[in-house]
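S.,

Sequence below, as promised.
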Amino acid sequence: MLSDDPNNERAFVALAEIVRRRAAEASTDPDPLAAPADETELQRAADLAVWALGEELAGNPRAWYPLIEVARLSVHDDHEGTVRRLTTAAERDPSGRALVEALALLREAGLPVDALGLGVGHWRPREHDPEVARQLVLASIEAGRPLEAKQHIAALDLYPDQKAVAELKSELARDVAHAQQTIPGT
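The prediction came back faster than expected:
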């Protein structure tokens, strides 16, 4: 399934779980005199196996989801590599779903300014999933930039189906208004 669609999330997660289990099993030494492997070693072995899987699948020029997963594994240890992988993922996906995932990952990691940099550089409001706007507005609020958040909401005016984004726009406007009340000096 992954050879046909390298971005099949369900297939990747299922294969990653198999790889994780195998790596954890391989890390346990049957030697009765050896110290038992601790949880961090087992987790590291499992993460490395998933990393290898993601890197292998990311070789496909259409693959963006494996890059997101490898970035998720590296977000706390390799900032530059994480941003590079997320940038590549966003460039490979014309729908904007990869950009949504990338921005959410950076926000969850406490990196809203990096999310803004990535999003502003790659968001195409006419073509991309409107959820990109949500991630950009939330990143702007988290970065203490409510005026920038308003610009992202205004960019939704370019989306061809205004009925589809009307509720999202009003929801995000409420979020920005609330943020402006809580940020000193705005």
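Residues 1-92 form one domain.

Coffee later?
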